[in-house]
Amino acid sequence: MHRDLVVVGASAGGVEALQTLVSRLPAGLPAAVVVVLHMPAGGSSALPTILGRCGKLPVSSVVDGTPVEHGHVYVAPPNHHTVVQDGVLRLSRGPTENGHRPAVNVLFRSAALARGSEVIGVVLSGALDDGTAGMVSIKNRGGLALVQSPEDALYPGMPDSVLRHVDADHVVPASEMGGLVARCVGKGPDAQAGTPASELLRMEVEVSRDDAGAGSGDIPQHGTMTTLTCPDCAGSLVALPNESGQYRCLVGHGWTPDALLDAYNGGLERALWMALRTLEEKTSLARRMASSSRRSGRELVAVRYDDQEEEALAAAAVLRKFLLNPELREDAGA
């Protein structure tokens, strides 16, 4: 066996790092390279064209059933997970991971399950902790972990997170990553390096596939129910027993701790803006009711409406100051 499947994950700031990596891969690389860059769900991606202009390898967008061939770079398209399965690349509309589709973790886990120690995982620039759970799976199965130096990344969150959870084999700047990949491919992995695929890994890969939610019914059996809820569907989250602290809801949406916190922060901010809108509407209505009461000669009723208006105005002023002042929000942990 030889290491001949390279899976690459990137997010914020990742286009530049990907361009640098691909530009340094040699023609005829004896391995296939599969890339996931987190991107918006709508529209098309220009990434295959961008990367195709950078280096010597042909680059194409993944279509369902694409054979995994050496000397080629494959890019996951928007709004579809890319899954390694039976020697080909499959596309899936399975549950999002950390709010993303395609997701780095989905590609990495499926590669670890399908190819074990033949896989080389690469994590480049990105925010939060995307890619960590997938890299844990790659390492557990005997694959190699290559990480962009956090100080070299435009967004060091993803590299930092991987390094906190995984004993990386190499940590280098993007300018050295292509040459490093070329040196690592083709070498025979240590047959004793990996462990058999766990039932947890099999379940998570099945959940990400397109075959009618396969495996989602098994989620509670692999973890512990929590009082936390999924930001995507408001379903209960199950804490899974893996090194990176993954959570899944009962329909399969996956969340890592940092991404879950970030999603909760976003939900809190939306709720606060909604509360501010409600206070503004209350102010407007109280003012109208006070004016109407005075026209009808009901001064005592009008005064009560005046008090409600002042109360709503004061609360709205405090809330608006909090929402528009980043320093106050950071001090409050929002």
Any overview of this molecule?
The protein is α/β, with parallel strands linked by helices and 334 residues long. The protein has two domains: 5-184, Methylesterase CheB, C-terminal domain (Rossmann fold), CATH 3.40.50.180; 259-331. It contains ten helices and 14 strands. The chain has a seven-stranded parallel beta sheet with strand order 3-5-2-1-8-9-10, sandwiched between helices. Helix 8 (257-295) runs antiparallel to helix 9 (299-324). The two termini are 49 Å apart.
Keywords, please?
single chain, 334 residues, alpha/beta, Rossmann fold, seven-stranded parallel sheet, elongated, EC 3.1.1.61, hydrolase, Chemotax_prot-Glu_Me-esterase, protein-glutamate methylesterase, CheB_C
Helix content: 40-55%
Please state roughly what percent of the residues sit in beta strands, choosing from under 5%, 5-15%, 15-25%, 25-35%, 35-45% or over 45%. 15-25%
CATH architecture title of the largest domain: 3-Layer(aba) Sandwich
User: How many E-type strands?
Assistant: 14
Taking pLDDT < 50 over at least 5 consecutive residues as the criterion, the unreliable ranges are: none
Which structural class fits the helix and strand makeup? alpha/beta
Order of helices and strands: EHEHEEEEEHEHEHEHHEEEEHHH
Total number of domains: 2
InterPro entries: CheB_C (IPR035909), Chemotax_prot-Glu_Me-esterase (IPR011247), Sig_transdc_resp-reg_Me-estase (IPR000673)
Protein name: protein-glutamate methylesterase
Catalytic activity: [protein]-L-glutamate 5-O-methyl ester + H2O = L-glutamyl-[protein] + methanol + H(+)
Keywords: Chemotaxis, Hydrolase
